[in-house]
Amino acid sequence: MNFDFSADQKELADHARRFLGESCTFDRLRDNMAGEEAYDRSLWQQMVELGWTAINIPEAQGGLGMGSLELCLLSEEVGRVLAPVPFFSTVCLGAHILNQLGQESLREQYLPPIAAGESVVAVALMPGLGQLEYADGCASGALGPVAWLGAADLLISRARDNHGTECLVLIDAKHATVARRNIDGVVLDGLVRHGQAEFSATPARLLASGDEARRLIELALAQAAILTAFEQLGGAQACCEMARDYSLERYTFGRVIGGYQAIKHKLADVQVEIELARSNAYYGAWALATDAAELARAAALARISATEAFTLAAEENLQVHGGIGYTWEANCHFYYQRARLLAINYGNADYWSQQLLAGLQAAH
Amino acid sequence: MDFNDSAEEAAFRAEVRAWLQQNASDYTEPLALRQGDPRIAEMGRSWQKQKAKGGFAAISWPVEAGGRGASPIEEVIFAEEEGRYHVPVGPFVGIGINLAVPTIRAHGTPEQIEKFARPTLLGEILWCQLFSEPGAGSDLAAVRTRATRDGDDWLVNGQKVWTSWAHTADWGIMLARTDPEQAKHKGLSFFLVDMRSAGIDVRPIRSISGESEFNEVFLTDVRIPDSQRLGAVGDGWKVAMTTLMNERASAADQSQSLPDVESLLAALGEQGRAANTRQLASLYAREQGLKYFGLRQLTRLSQGGNPDPISVMSKLVYANLLQDVSALGLDALGLPGAFAGRENHEAKKFQYGYQWSAALRIAGGADEILRNQIAERVLGLPGEIRSDKGVPFSQLPVGR
Question: Which of A19, A52, B49, B209 has an alpha carbon within 20 to 30 A of B26's alpha carbon?
């Protein structure tokens, strides 16, 4: 047994942390929200140059051929700085789903542009966010809100064919028959641009249908749960450090607030939740990397724990900051709102709790 | 990252399983004995001897200390397999092997190590821990049990409390005050006490469970030779810290007589599970997170790292989880569960878990003390403001 990442993997994470710490500042997040671009293109380009979009793509398709453990660590670092780029949908999900396809021609066509950073992918897998009907090579219907749908080159979506069978389709999101827009204005988390779109007989490639589609979706949801858990973990740890640092600078009643037990115990509880979440996330990473029989259970555990940890950390970070924490300048809000967005995304706590208990009951 | 047993670990596990099948067949059912029953200690003694004979008594200890020289991971593998049986490990492992012996090995003279470490391993010495006092719990350094020099001996007077197994123990590890004119932490020394010495009076404490897991120990002119002092005079606090570090690391060990989330799921039935899905999933995620947290710490130790200061959280999380799981289980079982007798092992688990968790949240570092430790040692927040700092112990104000 060795329940830790390797030295090489830790070095990759350290490097990613240094790079993102220098390049993805809070001011840059504010600029991004004020700007017209859906995502931070120059940050994305730097990530492409570092090979992050190629990380889980086989060498034969122009990738680096690394596994999900590296992806877990990068997700944590992306979550720590809230990087406004379509990393999760393009690399963690898009490339992952395409990798699983049996047809080599599809992999040959779509993976190299992702590895090269020329193709951004939006992914729509959860029910209840619109519906696509697929028939004779075309898809029609409406979707949204879906992350990066307004800016993506490709869309991978769940759909139903004319027999009502579940299927998975791939669509050129820039096609003339796609009417799409970014959802702007006052939203919960303006850093992850979500879009909506209508499709009228849009050309679509059928990736899988029936049992195979369900298998791919289930696998992609487990992947989404575990990598989101790492993203949440990064956010939670950032909140804890931010609250700790502030509590050592802020004086009330003649001393730093970090010396009061009301603050010490609160932050100790946050750190404990993070350690529990980290432990479950590591278990998820192992299950993902080894395609373990326990993958579904591990995904639910990682996700439930990480949602609890990030929620607590983001709420208490703002609370420790006091009134200033409620301002746009104080940065607490980035995490506070992201914590909720990630709690909702790809199955909320109710969804994963039901999955977990159903799995436990089935095991008996 | 590899979560499975390595080839050597799998071979060790198979060896342990086969040995337990041969040797632990008397312990397939829960013991129908009250907490603190002296028969448990005697069963523990013979089980410890059996383990020593089989070469499993101190798996990760060095060979020269009488151990097996194996890894901490193999230690855990043995505990996992042993945990499938209802063996009475508490009296020996909990105090003697987990607390007394590591402290003696860290601070003792070669003669002390020779006299105490190996016999404990072999099941010959049962220990108790004479630390807490009526006025010294979370503030352990406030002990006022007094040891005064008398020729080559020390004379000890005072009172200890919360002493598990004092009524059956052969020896005790004791923290006592040797110089009240020094500041609180500086005037302490650490002793090994023969529990059969004249002047020791052990009285059981009836706890909230109605049983007697603990005792109070009165010491009146108890004579202790100076050769039974562990560490230098005045170094008692430093020595006790070794004990406490070990206590916090092991206090989250789980037992077959306490409920886990799986037993809660069974107790709730289908309807109860459906009505509490989110809470149950959250409790299960905590339980599993704690298990994997332990494995992360174990990986760290097996790679030669020091214990992580965050590791004290295990007991904090476990005690609170046990309380939550037990309360929910009792709610589910209703009055039939609350009034179930000893023959109903399942219901009894929840009753005892509800009672014992209240003790566990206080024992071996109360929740509040552990939160302070995490805040200070992990997050680097300031220590508490101390009005007793640098003040001679004899000058400190006392309440009740």
Answer: B209
